[in-house]
Amino acid sequence: MTKAHEIWVGAYAAKNEIGITRMELLPETGELFKTAEYGNIENASFLRMNKEGTRLYAVSETDKYVDVDGDEAEGGQLASFPVDPDTRKLGPGTYAPTHGIHPCHLSLTPTEDWVAVTNYGGASVTMYPVNPDTKPGPPMIRFRHTGTGPNADRQEAPHPHSAFFSGDGRLLYVCDLGMDKVLTYERGPEAHEWSAYDAVSLEPGAGPRHLAFRPESNDAYVLNELDSTVTHFKVDEEGKLNRRASLTTLPASFKGESTCAEILVSPDGRFAYASNRGHDSIAVFRIDETTGELQASGHVSTRGKTPRNFALTPDGQWLLAANQQSDSVVLFRIEPHTGLPIYAGVELPVSKPVCVLIR
């Protein structure tokens, strides 16, 4: 039997509710089942795990929290949990302030020596060195953003929404929804040295949210939340982004309100996927093998409301979508020739799921 895929789902939840759910997917049969549920973390809206699978990192997306002294403090937290290598159970968590409200995304360098957390409501990105025991150390760096966009309701201030490291770990690309920019930071020669490097602009009011790189190429794709588009970029030899074309994630016939949430590229680099909240679908794009350009291929219903996040298995055969407002995680099988997700007839109830992590 092929080894089961390990799946972790983060959810919006109070501290005394279930915030993290562990699942397993049997790839040969498509069986999906829960194996554990955990509380003691409020609004675990984004998850990451180290390569060895020994530590799970999560952001607690709040504007206030209670510190170790029992006092209320402003902001959110970065949580980390040891994972037992045999039972795969989570151990007691450790928590660190993110120095900004509503942290919504985190990422690890390829060498796993830094964690970057974006504070959506704090106009900042906070950087933590990772200790040899895989626990985050005290934050060492905080990048502050300034600027606005034309959307008065959503772009009244900077809103960093995600941060992604380059394959060599030298650069950090930050999508700022409020500024309509992707800002790049560069790692210096000293151990704790990072500095501003570059910035590129999107269409006014686009609202860049997440980014995905195409494997073994110089193609990058930025998902724009507010205008429901994907923008193709070429990454030059210096790591700078050069803007190309943008495509809508919505069908021409759709006239309602919708915003984008997540974008992923298939492991083989043939397809890109983006989630639409409102149209409640996964948009599928075929990627030109030579140019990296996107071609719209269709839309698939996520069979629920508000698909904030989804994930692909490492073999590219399965997709799991988290429907936040219908409290479900739904399984799809990827059709290998078209790349379209096909409903596998399996869905599990999870309260307000907003992140899916597949190890």
UniProtKB/TrEMBL annotation:
GO terms for molecular function: 6-phosphogluconolactonase activity. InterPro entries: Cycloisomerase_2, Haem_d1_sf, Lactonase_7-beta_prop, WD40/YVTN_repeat-like_dom_sf. It comes from the Bacteria. Transmembrane segments: none annotated. SUPFAM superfamilies: C-terminal (heme d1) domain of cytochrome cd1-nitrite reductase (SSF51004). Pfam families: Lactonase. Belongs to the cycloisomerase 2 family. This is Lactonase family protein. It comes from Cohnella endophytica.
